[in-house]
Design brief:
7 helices; two-stranded antiparallel sheet; 2 domains
Length: 215
């Protein structure tokens, strides 16, 4: 530890923010690294964060202190990954706000182990919620007929009105509308959204005379 240093890592979003609140009484040999950037940028991709990574790889750091854990990453998974990385390098991470030290006498702190477990749970919740939002977005896009599918950004030929009206789901809506049902009742009967029924009605133009009244 004689040749290693304690590092204080600070991140603020804008130059106008004062990083002083993230500082505290430190040994004279402590190194302070301050990044001014968005928290959405991964730690080791930030200017000072990349310097910190280089110091870690050169085994020049024995402890890193932060004001609070969210300074370390863009989300819970990112923070969790960083903590595990630091612990694998035998570096003690100190979070002032949470009152946590990940290492005690060179060994894993039981409290830190519990913290990692909690973070892992929250990370899984975040990922599940993200997948749910993505699925909801895809479902709505498909309903509007604008879903491109997959992750491809290539432009695709827009769906024509004839192709839209030829779909089984669309045909069912057309049939129920022609029976004289209102837009809302048609949506209920067909199990689709009111927006979809309105899209069908618009595709048909003035061919149908449909009321917007609830029934």
């Amino acid at each position: 530890m004689d040749n290693t240093k304690q590092v204080v890592y600070i991140r603020v979003s804008t130059p106008e923010q004062n990083p002083a609140r993230q500082k505290y009484e430190l040994p004279n040999d402590a190194i302070v690294l301050v990044d001014i950037c968005s928290g959405s940028i991964p730690l080791f991709e930030r200017p000072e964060g990349s310097k910190l990574r280089a110091m870690i790889e050169r085994e020049e750091v024995y402890q890193i202190s932060v004001h609070q854990l969210d300074r370390l990453g863009r989300d819970t998974l990112d923070v969790l990954t960083t903590i595990k990385f630091l612990m694998s390098k035998g570096i003690n991470l100190v979070s002032i706000q949470e009152g946590i030290s990940t290492m005690v006498n060179g060994k894993e702190n039981p409290l830190a182990k519990m913290l990692i477990g909690v973070l892992a749970t929250f990370s899984e919740m975040e990922q599940n919620r993200r997948k749910e939002r993505q699925a909801e977005g895809i479902a709505k896009a498909k309903e509007r007929g604008v879903y491109l599918g997959g992750s491809s950004k290539a432009k695709r030929t827009p769906e024509t009105t004839a192709q839209f009206l030829a779909k089984p789901k669309t045909k069912k809506v057309v049939r129920v509308l022609k029976e004289g049902n209102s837009l809302r009742r048609t949506a209920l009967i067909c199990g689709v959204s009111l927006v979809f029924v309105q899209k069908v009605r618009n595709a048909l133009g003035n061919a149908l005379k449909v009321t917007d009244q609830q029934s």
